[in-house]
Structure formats: structure tokens, C-alpha cells
Amino acid sequence: MRQSLMAESRMRRSTMTGRPAAQSESKNKFQPVSSTWTAWPQQFLLFAIFFAGLMLLHAPLLRLPYFWDEAGYYIPAARDLFLTGSFVPQSTLSNAHPPLAMAWLALAWRVFGYSTLVTRTAMLALSAFSLLGLFRLSRSAANLPVAWATALLVAIYPVYFTQSSMAQVDLPAAGFTFWALAAYVEDREKDHPWKQVFWFSLAALTKETAILAPLALFGWGLVAGFIGPRLPLHSRSRLRPHINDIRWQEILPPSGRRSRWFYLLLPVAPLAGWYAYHYSRTGFLLGNPEFFRYNVAATLNPLRIPLALGMRLWQLFGYFGLYLLTFAGLLAMLRPPQKRNASARPRIPFWVQAAFLSLVLAYLAFMSVVGGAVLARYMLPVVPLVILAWVSTLWRRARYWELIVGAVAIAFVAGLFSNPPYGFSLEDNLAYRDYIVMHAEASRFLAMRYPGARVLTAWPASDELTRPWLDYVSQPFRVVRIEDFSASQVDVAARARGQFDVALVFSTKYEPPHALFENWDAWQRVKEKFFGYHRDLLPEDIAQRLGGTIAYHKEMNGQWIAVIVMAK
């Protein structure tokens, strides 16, 4: 009787405090990261290990010229900041991206000099710091073996790997988000959320969409605060009655003072300050009108949104070998937990899983509505969270989980070097290296054989030939630009053939030799209408329509480039 009264008292206290009774009477339910792993010497050692590993793996890529959006926006913006001190780009139209990553590159150039080697090394430092944040988050949410396995898989996941050395903002924004989430997890019993505010603010000042993370956690906090008192204390699964009772309070986020949730709104302030500054300098709030039209106005179509959502789900659970990890994790969930010292291996706490889920849903919803190009790098803040959740599931339920992780790692490495049987962005694996090598060689051919010639081409080659500091040419060419190498654009150029001497033509996207849905005309029309798809003509067809001859032609792993000389 006395024990019953004590248990009832503990349950009543847990209901009043918003914490489950098991956590009120013992703090062994969830252990924060020990001081061994939070001490700065150990943190620095881990950073050095991650940085050295990334430098070693990326060594053949460190001197490559700039690629695609690097050349088109981020490097010009960082160079303007480096030369003039202006946070708003002058040599290219501003997209209103916050300037933190560009400021980091400008600082690196100021200290070590301007070069692609310095640029890519500086970005690898940010990538190593991001891996360290993910490692700390994984260690806090799960355990040390899961943290090492998660960091390894994320580091070699093709999209993360290629973005690690690229001068773009998505990966650094994801890294600051990992650090903020680590502070969120470690701050469960405290009312000092300033670390979260700091890291979330840095993430938002790196890329504006990173504000989704604190807003998602804030929204989940409000929802949990509303439904928490109305939920039953226990629930038993009808589908799997052998599992333990679920305490709904374990799913709710940390309680503390209710005002703590409003701290998650503070990162909005520095981002709003940046937009106010940008508007005062340019007159545009969300970037130039063309950028806004392409990424927002043109995407708000009720037919496009579900299609984009399907693509985002694929990028989250299936892209480049992720389907193997997802399949293995789903199978593992059918098995009971492995035993350790007569007790089941612990899972990631339910409230941490709920926090991760809120971020995943926020990114899925937002990135399915906006963004003209459905690029996989936009999902980098949440893909590692999915990898972490699956690795933790395998560790908990699969006996030979290390072998499964090893098999997934092999699939990731294979995805780096081999292209899938469907179209994908070249920046998502080492296909971007093939692109850069071919364009650099073709640019040298133009410089040697046709110096001073007027060149017909499309973006981004138009920037590569006119900006020597992108490391493709030493002297700029005069360029006549068209949008792409589709039949309609080539015919427009043919009518103005007297305005150029040679044409630099290339594949603007990867076309698999035997693509899935290749003969499905309806899907082709959908891609053309909603996702800007077009089919490039082959070099022979372009030369025939322009009335020229091919002087240079090279193909590499499904990509091609050619130089066409106009008949005099």
C-alpha cells in the first residue's frame, strides 16, 4: 500500500512538472554528453580528425575551377566582398542570400590569398566543423558507436561529399543547424537556450531557409504544450502488443519555463536585419525579380507541389543508396531490440525523435512549395537526421548492424563514381569533376586556337569565358549568350550567325543512356512544364543548324562538349 501511494505521488509530481515519472526519479533515462566529449581539447581533436580525413579524400579535387552556381553567384559575391567590402554583390545580380559563408571565404582569401585551393580548403574546414556538430548531436541523442557510424556515412554520402569542398551555402547552414540541435538536446533540463539561439542565428545568416529549423521546433513546442496535458499517461500499441507501454509525456519536448520556446524566435531577428539592409541597398527584399519569379512565383502551382514532394521524399529516403539504408531500417523495426546486460538497447528518446520529425516535415513542406530547381543539397539539414535515425535503429535491433552500415557505405562510395539510371544534378556526385575537366580543356583549346574570337555559348560557360578569376581562361572572350542548346534556342542563334565566330556547346544536364521513363511522353511534358526540363541537341545537329564544323569534341561518362567553327 505504501509503495502504491509513493508511485502515485511520483506520477502526480511528473504530471505537474511535465516530465515522466521515470525521469523525475532517475536521470539515467537520458544521459547528456559527458564532459569527456564536450571538453574543447577533445572537440578540437575530433575536428582535426574530420578535417584531415576530408582533405585526404578531396585532395584530387582541391584545385578544380569553380562549378555552376559557384561560378555564377557565390564566388562573385564573395570576391566583391573581398575586394570592395560590400555585402551586396556588385558583379552579379543579388539573390539576397545572407553573407556569412561569403564573408568566411573573403576572410580566408585575405589571410592566405585568392586561389581555388584556399577556397576549397576553407569550405572543407566548414564541412569538418559540420561533421563535428553532427557527431556531437548523434552522441547526445544516441551513443558513441552510432555517432561514429553516422558521421562516417554522412561524410561519404555523395551529396554531402561533393558539397564539402564547393563554395556554396547549404552544407555550412546544415552544419550550424546540427550544432544548434546538439545544444537543444543537451539543454533538456536547463533554461539557458542561448546556445541554440546562437547556432540557429549563424545558420540563418548562412542561408535563409535554415530559419525553418527553429521555427519548426517552436511550432512543435506550442503544439506539444497544448496537447500534452490532454494525452493519456500510457498507451499500448495494438499492432505490436509485446512492446512496453509508451508514456506520451516522453514524446513531448523539454518543459522548463514556457518562455524558453519563444527564444527559438530570436534567430528571426538577425535574418530580418539582413533583409532590411539588403532592401535599403537594392530596393528588393527577396532577391532580384528574376530570382524571386523562378524560385517562388513560378513554383506556387497546386499540380507542381505534389510532384516536388515526391521528389523530396525520394531525396530523403532513396537518393544515391539511401534506399538501402531505409529498407534495412524498416526491416530492423520488425525485430525486437537486442539485449545488453539483460536489458534492451535504448532508442533515441521519443522527444528527440519528435524534434527531428518536426524538422523533416518542415523541410519537406517548404522545399516542395518553393525552389525552382529541386536540388538535393537543399535537404542537407535533414538527410543526416534520417541517417542518424536509421543507424540508431540498426544498432538497437540488428545483431550485425556494423555489416549493414558497411554495405550502405559501399553503396555510397559506388554512387560517387557511377551515375544512376535517371537524371540527376551533376553536383550530386563526381560527375561535376567530369564537367569541370571537360570545360577547362575546351577553354584552353579556344584560347590556343581562336584567341579573341566571338564565342556563342550558354551559362555557365558564358561566365567561365568572361571571368578569368574563375580559372578557366587567362584572357576574357567576347560572348554571345543563349539560354541552352535546345532546338528552339539553336535556331535563334542560327539566325544571328554573323555575330559569333565559334560556338562552345555542351550538355547542360546528364542524360542516362537508358533512362527510366525515357519513352513516357506525359512525364517529359510534366518536367518541361514544371521543372524547366529541355533536351539538348547533339553536337552534330547543332553544327548542321548553325552551318559550322566541329573542331573539338569530347565525351566523358554521359557528358559531352564541343567547339564548332562557323564557315566564313
Strand content: 5-15%
| Radius of gyration of CA atoms, rounded to a whole number | 26 Å
Would you identify the regions where 5 or more consecutive residues have pLDDT less than 50?
A: 1-37, 235-246
Strand order of the largest sheet: 6-5-7-9-8
Any overview of this molecule?
By secondary structure, the chain is an alpha/beta fold. The chain folds into two domains: 37-421, no CATH class; 430-566. It has 25 helices and nine strands. The strands form three sheets. Strands 6-5-7-9-8 form a five-stranded mixed beta sheet, sandwiched between helices. Helix 8 (144-156) packs parallel to helix 20 (401-417) and helix 19 runs antiparallel to helix 20. The N and C termini lie far apart (104 Å). Mean pLDDT is 87; it is low at 1-37 and 235-246.
What key phrases describe this protein's structure?
7% strand, disordered N terminus, five-stranded mixed β-sheet, alpha/beta, two-stranded antiparallel sheet, 2 domains, 568 residues, 25 helices
Put the structure in a nutshell.
With 568 residues, this protein is α/β, with parallel strands linked by helices.
Question: What is the secondary structure topology, with strand pairs?
Answer:
Blueprint lengths: L1 H16 L3 H5 L9 H4 L1 H19 L10 H16 L15 H13 L3 H26 L2 H13 L1 H7 L5 H17 L7 H13 L5 H16 L6 E2 L10 E2 L12 H4 L4 H15 L6 H7 L8 H14 L4 H11 L6 E2 L2 E2 L5 H20 L13 H15 L3 H17 L13 H19 L4 E5 L2 H6 L11 E5 L4 H8 L7 E5 L14 H10 L8 H8 L1 E9 L2 E8 L2
Parallel strand pairs: 5-6, 5-7
Antiparallel strand pairs: 1-2, 3-4, 7-9, 8-9
Helix pairs in contact: 4-7, 5-6, 6-7, 7-8, 7-10, 8-19, 8-20, 10-11, 12-18, 16-17, 16-18, 17-19, 17-20, 19-20
